[in-house]
Specification:
Elements (H helix, E strand, L loop, with lengths): L1 H16 L1 H4 L7 H11 L7 E4 L5 H9 L6 E5 L5 H7 L4 E4 L5 H7 L5 E6 L8 H14 E11 L8 H7 L1 E9 L6 E8 L3
Parallel strand pairs: 1-2, 1-4, 2-3, 4-5
Antiparallel strand pairs: 5-7, 6-7
The structure holds S-adenosylmethionine.
The site of S-adenosylmethionine (SAM) has 22 residues, from helix 2, helix 4 and strand 2.
């Protein structure tokens, strides 16, 4: 309970400062986090990139699902979250960085392409050129048959339609999580096999 309150309080402070980048009123609830972890799937041999980590509620669900912390590369642009993420996930790779430069950061860590991306980025509220740059990075770092799990508060798809056509992905609407503030839908993007 205390942890939940701390997560919410540090989140709300950042939200007041930069609403467009945070794009949410509260950290995601447990049901949403578990659904995201379930749909991206657990593979102890794979590297996972998480973008838009915030206070780490999604990361907690990934770890609880069985993904080793060492396999997690956590990207968060808001500096105020970084120390708490490092404290909560001491074995994970916490990177204070902009998701527009994922490939560069991963390359610096000796990582090439990955199979799994877990994204909580608020694509609907990010400036269009920023969103386009990030989607281009997703394409650049994902292996063939790689997957992206993304939630949205909107009724329609989280990414522009052009994303699927340009980069060759299929999109599948997964769970609707009514018990979240606000309610959210989980989407799974899979790169079409070439
Ligand atoms: C909707 S919050 C999600 C936080 C947490 N994952 C959750 O589900 O509660 C979006 C997060 O994305 C971060 N963010 C926004 N733009 C970013 C960018 N370009 N690169 C990395 N993180 C970004 C924000 O700082 C914020 O922490």
């Amino acid at each position: 309970m205390r942890q939940k309150f701390q997560n919410a309080s540090s989140f709300i402070k950042k939200m007041v400062k930069s609403p467009q980048e945070i794009g949410a009123v509260m950290p995601s609830g447990k049901n949403l986090c578990r659904s995201m972890a379930q749909h991206i799937g657990v593979d102890e041999n794979e590297i996972y990139v998480e973008v838009g980590v915030g206070t780490g509620v999604m990361t907690r669900a990934l770890v609880e699902a069985g993904i080793p912390q060492e396999n997690l590369y956590l990207f968060e642009s808001e500096e105020g979250f970084i120390a708490e993420l490092k404290e909560k996930f001491p074995k994970a790779n916490v990177i204070h960085g902009d998701a527009q430069f994922l490939q560069k950061y991963l390359c610096q860590k000796g990582i090439g392409k990955v199979s799994k991306i877990v994204s909580s980025l608020p694509f609907k509220s990010l400036p269009k050129p920023v969103a386009a740059n990030i989607l281009e990075q997703f394409d650049m770092i994902l292996k063939p048959n790689g997957k992206i799990v993304q939630f949205t508060y909107a009724v329609n798809e989280p990414y522009p339609r052009s994303f699927k056509n340009i980069y060759g992905f299929t999109a599948n609407r997964k769970n609707y999580i009514a018990k979240n503030i606000p309610p959210a839908t989980v989407w799974l993007y899979t790169r079409s096999a070439i």
